[in-house]
From TrEMBL:
It comes from Bacillus infantis. This is XdhC family protein. Transmembrane segments: none annotated. InterPro entries: MoCofactor_Util/Proc, XdhC_CoxI, XdhC_Rossmann_dom. Residues 189-324 form the XdhC Rossmann domain. Residues 16-79 form the XdhC- CoxI domain.
């Protein structure tokens, strides 16, 4: 699961336990994580999310307590590029300059995090724009959801309020800096078919950040007991399920009912929908038959999965999730 989604789950459940939110706002050179990576620091010492390969988390934990006590945000820059400085984890993937914004988690920020979680849970992306002074202290921020609703304070230039395609990045506007941070819902994966081979796929996909919906007509198979990591188990015919679904470009699907007519119907209904990925289990020749000899759209991948010579349900799950992640990250 993406760190931000884990952070929001923790913030919603923790009451007053979180003390600070750490966000990377600028990177020069190489780093373990890039701009937008976040970590929630808890009062009991727990940390949700990662920023580096352990290079500076201990120092951040100390600074977080001070930020929380003062009730004031603070930016700190770590220079991990010096060959003489071995204290910051040289050789652990930390070789650049990293600027991190530490914000105390008080009533206002927690309310904003809950707003962010609510929107993401509804499938709406949110862009957060943080206004920063020359010394990179927070001076207001604004959350703008994809549905047009807003939360926050401080004047944000209108030109930055359409920041969906921009960030995460740090910009200079007039006398201030602005950190533009688009945050997207977890990608949804629809798995059609609750056979034994679906178990490792659902489990691995859920653990790598996909919100998994399992669809099958057999209640004895399609259940939370069999698929505890699925966000929802939808029992009913594929036709019924598809009638109630609206797909977006952030959605993924894998067709694996192992019944030709059901697979054919599902693929016929989905092939022209605006999904990012449709994986069809089985050889390409079978998929050609499912399509009635018609050319498959670019979104249809058959056989599903990267060509790594996978054998067995677990390896096939790895190949399919790997292919979906490649698509998610925009890799060719």
């Amino acid at each position: 699961m993406e760190d931000m989604h884990r952070i929001l789950e923790a913030a919603a459940a923790a009451g007053e336990l979180p003390i600070a939110l750490a966000v990377i706002i600028h990177v020069e050179g190489s780093s373990y994580k890039k701009e937008g990576a976040a970590m929630l620091l808890m009062a009991n010492g727990e940390r949700i999310g990662t920023l580096t390969a352990g290079c500076l988390e201990e120092d951040l934990a100390i600074r977080a307590k001070a930020v929380h006590a003062e009730g004031k945000s603070s930016a700190v820059q770590y220079d991990l590029s010096s060959e003489d400085d071995l204290s910051w984890g040289q050789g652990a993937g930390c070789n650049g300059k990293i600027t991190i914004l530490l914000e105390p988690v008080g009533k206002r920020l927690r309310q904003q995090l809950l707003f962010l979680k609510e929107k993401l849970d509804k499938g709406k992306a949110v862009v957060r724009i943080i206004r920063l002074t020359d010394s990179l202290e927070s001076n207001g921020d604004l959350y703008i959801a994809e549905d047009g609703t807003q939360l926050g304070s401080g004047h944000i230039p209108f030109t930055l309020q359409a920041g969906w395609k921009e960030g995460p990045l740090l910009l200079k506007e007039a006398e201030d800096f602005f950190f533009v941070h688009p945050i997207f819902p977890a990608p949804r994966l629809y798995v059609f078919g609750a056979g034994e081979d679906a178990r490792p796929l659902v489990s691995l996909a859920a653990r790598t950040g996909f919100k998994v919906f399992l669809v099958d007509w057999r209640p004895a198979l399609c259940s939370p007991e069999n698929f505890p990591e699925a966000a929802e188990c939808v029992v009913g015919s594929p036709e019924m399920a598809l009638d109630g679904l609206t797909f977006t470009k952030r959605d993924y699907a894998v067709i694996m009912t192992h019944q030709f007519e059901k697979d054919r119907m599902i693929l016929a209904r989905m092939k022209d929908a605006p999904l990012s990925y449709i994986g069809v289990l089985g050889p390409a020749r079978r998929t050609e038959r499912l399509l009635g000899g018609r050319t498959a759209p670019e979104t249809v991948h058959s056989p599903a999965g990267l060509p790594i010579g996978a054998k067995g349900p677990e390896e096939i799950a790895v190949s399919i999730v790997g292919e979906m992640i490649r698509k998610l990250r925009g890799r060719p």
